[in-house]
Amino acid sequence: MAINYPNGKKFSPPKDKPVSQKKRDVSFSNRGKTLEDELNETNTYYLQRGLAVIHKKPVPVQIVRVEYPSRSAAVIREAYFQAPSTTDYNGIWQGRYIDFEAKETEIRTSFPLKNIHEHQVHHMADILRHGGLAFLIIRFSSLDRYFVLPFEVLETYWKRMAAGGRKSMTIDEIEESSIEVKPGAFPRIDYLSVLDQLKQ
């Protein structure tokens, strides 16, 4: 396969240095995927088996300037967010509307609440008020642990922070007030298996 620079010049590796093939770590516990990748795969699994219809929400972006360096290529040069996004995913499961935000952290001992925005908290409160299910899926990447955190729990700790309290949830608080989902193969993050415990 030929590789070219953007200006069309052909790339050729230096002759004195062989091109090294970096060995990829494909172990089960570290596949190099983000939480979003894992959830997208999980949602495809659910859709293909008729279990739920859940999709990642597109980010509302307005494109203002596009350049066409060639007939077959377009490059976006300027774009703006039209409005604050709400949450990452939404859909329907067993006749119930679900809406959730996916967050990951490398911190081992706590989850920073600054990762959630105030408008997202208001949005999830609205979902709950209208009978839907709202929650967070949190991945502690360094621990390879996944938690489904009900919105009601998040709201409690959000109010604590707003009142001048701690700006994060400790891992102990998360273990006590959320449901841990063990990663598997198919699907990777089977969060639907715990949603019955969130139903009002």
Summarize the structure.
With 200 residues, this protein is of the alpha+beta class. The protein is built from four helices and ten strands. It is found in: Cytoplasm.
Keyword list:
200 residues; alpha+beta; two-stranded antiparallel ribbon; 4 helices
Q: Structural class of the secondary elements?
A: alpha+beta
Q: Give, in order, the helices and strands.
A: HEEEEEEHEEHEHE
Beta-strand residue percentage: 25-35%
Largest sheet: 6 strands, mixed
Can you put this structure into words, describing what you see?
The chain is an alpha+beta fold and 200 residues long. Helices cover 22% and strands 30% of the residues. The protein has four helices and ten strands, in the order H-E-E-E-E-E-E-H-E-E-H-E-H-E. It has helices spanning 35-48, 118-129, 151-162, 171-177, and strands at residues 53-56, 61-70, 73-81, 89-93, 96-105, 110-112, 133-140, 145-150, 168-170, 179-181. The strands form three sheets. Strands 1-4-5-7-8-10 form a six-stranded mixed β-sheet, sandwiched between helices. Strands 2-3 form a two-stranded antiparallel ribbon. A two-stranded antiparallel sheet has the order 6-9. Strand 4 (89-93) and strand 5 form a beta hairpin. Helix 2 (118-129) crosses helix 3 (151-162). The radius of gyration is 21 Å and the shape is globular. 20% of the residues are buried. The model is unreliable at 16-31 (pLDDT under 50).
